[in-house]
Amino acid sequence: MAAGLTYVDQPEQVRLALSPLRRRLLGLLREPASATRLAGELDLPRQRVNYHLRALERAGLVELVEERQRRGCVERILRTRPGTFVVDPTMMIADERTQARDQFAAEHLVDVAAATVRDVARMQAGAAAEGKRLLTFTVEAEVKFGQPHDVHAFTDALAEAVRQVVARFDSPDGRPYRMVVAGHPAPADMGDNQ
């Protein structure tokens, strides 16, 4: 099974991971290591490294791999939690916005995208914890509009096409899926890669 995601949805987890030393430790711990080894690599006192490792471990960002007896002491081998860290983007929103759902508003697109990241990351983390795979799909395309008003006509046509496909496959007793179709201008550097 793939390494999956480590879903980060607590402000304290993000705060702990942001310091330069802790970011460096998270990077080095992609390979399991002890505080002693890391202290040697970073040229820092072992106690200081151990302090930061304990904080990262309490936050759930690193995990214990094994404990070894070494010179009368127990050496703890840690690693960064497998997979990619995904920070809940809605965590940064100070209040619940109750804005109109304007399908052409950039703010609405950002809110929907943030909720999608949050929901999929949570479900992926849960599926990985159960040793399962989360079944998702993604459809991507690029379209070049000749005129600005073509965006509205395209959106109407796409919405009708999606409505027809949904009507064909929708089953009252089936498992519900949320589908999000979004469009935004392509970043300027995307055209350079084509």
Structure write-up:
This protein is α+β, with helices and mostly antiparallel strands. It has one domain (about 1-140): Arc Repressor Mutant, subunit A (Orthogonal Bundle). Helix content is about 40%, strand content about 15%. It has six helices and five strands, in the order βααβααβββαα. The chain has helices spanning about 10-20, 20-30, 35-40, 45-60, 105-130, 150-170, and strands spanning about 5-10, 35, 60-70, 75-80, 85. The strands form two sheets. It has a three-stranded antiparallel β-sheet. A two-stranded parallel ribbon has the order 1-5. Strand 3 (about 60-70) and strand 4 form a beta hairpin. Helix 2 crosses helix 4. The radius of gyration is 23 Å and the shape is elongated. The protein starts with a strand and ends in a 25-residue tail after the last helix.
Give a topology summary.
Elements: E1 5-8, H1 11-18, H2 20-28, E2 33-34, H3 35-42, H4 46-58, E3 62-70, E4 73-80, E5 84-87, H5 106-129, H6 150-169
Helix pairs in contact: 2-4, 3-4
Question: Can you summarize the main beta sheet?
Answer: 3 strands, antiparallel
The beta-strand count equals: 5
CATH architecture: Orthogonal Bundle
| CATH topology descriptor | Arc Repressor Mutant, subunit A
Order of strands across the main sheet: 2-4-3
Task: Label the structural class.
Answer: alpha+beta
Element order, helices and strands? Answer: EHHEHHEEEHH
Distance between the termini: 33 Å
Text of the CATH class: Mainly Alpha
